[in-house]
Amino acid sequence: MATFVDRVVLHLSAGDGGNGCVSVRREKFKPLAGPDGGNGGHGGDIVLVSDPQVTTLLSYHRYPHQTSDSGTFGMGDNRHGSNGEPLELRVPIGTVVTDDEGNELIDFSEPHLRYVVAKGGLGGLGNASLATQKRKAPGFALLGTPGEKLDIHLELKTMADIALVGFPSAGKSSLIAAISAARPKIADYPFTTLQPNLGVVQAGNTRFTVADVPGLIEGASEGKGLGLDFLRHVERCSALLHVLDCATLEPGRDPLSDLDIILAELEAYPVAEGEIPLSKRPQLIALNKADVPEARELAEFVRPELEARGYKVFTISAVAHDGLKALTYALAEVVEQHRAAELAAPVAPRIIIRPTAVDKLPFTVRVEGGTYGNIYRVLGQKPERWVAQTDFANDEAVGYLADRLNKLGVEDGLFKAGAVAGSTVVIGEGDGVIFDWEPTLTSTAELITAPRGADLRLDENQRPTHKTRREIYLDRMDAKAEARAELEREREAGLWKDEDTESSN
């Protein structure tokens, strides 16, 4: 059964928001005293926390599906729903979190860091919160939005001061067992160590950690053997200790060739930008298995050449505990120098800023070809959230959604994209919410068809000015006066007589 896990995929589901409530307050002698529906509670977030007491991802390997609590629905009498409890997932220091596409979300290089990896859904507003001067008694409420659902990858990179590197069966597990209280598995066959082992070493007043990681072979940087499973645990170490086997019986192997192969693999392994390459970090050499006479002779033979390369060399025997004290004090000195350099270096506060782009539009309209014509897909955080909050069984709620989309400029965006009445519009990715678009016409401009660069409205009579209306009025009055004068002349000529005059005669 596995006891150490350094890679795991988590399937996260943040809590959903609770629905808002539709309610009308009823009092004695006041049957309809106004809306009093409460808001729904927010869903709980899922938070990752780096904890020094956690050393493995084993618990998440067994339970990869994690879900936080959902918010409760609102109730009448302005009673709001309760928020869902956030779910805290504690991970070891040194855990790197990435998404499905390999993008790094956060690196837990320090203790007690917190990162909200999945946000809970928003609670829906009750009809009391939706009341306005124009809409005094809403007959609808908003639904709660679903929480985020995503998969993340956790990768543990061991946090230790010293990393023991070397070929399989070089004696790394025996060495860490001799200088610390760690009890790794020790056997006389290669690749005994299949998982990193940490040990705490006390040398004088200095305490530091040593990592015994799986053995390294040629081609490890390309994935051979345990390959990357080994090398990624070396990334966080401040110094390396090469454990060279001086008693190997394999043909073609000796401490110098082993060291050259290991250095080549360290040189080929890529590290993150801003980090020191593995081959450039402080390195010491331990010529192990000196309790064997032939091994001690070989160690004394290669020691001058290794020292000529600039390495500090120690002849040790992990089994006989020979030379370990000098080695641990030398390691402690390297660790103290590294810690002093870190303290002297200015540390900027960790500030994560994710500003919204100035030119970012609240939504976009994407035209997609379909079997029965173009499909106009509206994408944007606000439109998609508003659709999720809408109860489509309530006509008033649908009208409220239409007003919100119109104020955001969705109708204008659809017109510019070429949509006409009856076009298929989808809001959101995938299936989304599909409907036949019926635009709200504020003029007949959308229905006018004319050649490109022409506008038929320009040919219509414009609204008359005050001077024009005055001229028209005066012309009309002059025409009436001329008509009366013409009638008078005809009467005087005897062409017709007044009825009153005839009756008197």
UniProtKB/TrEMBL annotation:
Signal peptide: none annotated. Keywords: Cytoplasm, GTP-binding, Hydrolase, Magnesium, Metal-binding, Nucleotide-binding. Mg(2+) binds at S173, T193. This is GTPase Obg. PANTHER family: DEVELOPMENTALLY REGULATED GTP-BINDING PROTEIN-RELATED, MITOCHONDRIAL RIBOSOME-ASSOCIATED GTPASE 2. One of its GO terms (molecular function) is magnesium ion binding. NCBIfam families: Obg_CgtA, Obg_CgtA_exten, PRK12296.1, PRK12297.1, PRK12299.1. Residues 355-439 form the OCT domain. The keyword Calcium does not apply. The lineage of its organism: Bacteria, Bacillati, Actinomycetota, Actinomycetes, Micrococcales. Pfam families: DUF1967 (PF09269), GTP1_OBG (PF01018), MMR_HSR1 (PF01926). Monomer. The keyword GTP-binding applies. Its cofactor is Mg(2+). One of its GO terms (biological process) is ribosome biogenesis. It is found in: Cytoplasm. GTP binds at residues 166-173, 191-195, 212-215, 288-291, 317-319. Residues 484-505 are annotated as: Disordered. An essential GTPase which binds GTP, GDP and possibly (p)ppGpp with moderate affinity, with high nucleotide exchange rates and a fairly low GTP hydrolysis rate. Plays a role in control of the cell cycle, stress response, ribosome biogenesis and in those bacteria that undergo differentiation, in morphogenesis control. It is an enzyme of class 3 (hydrolase). It comes from the Bacteria.
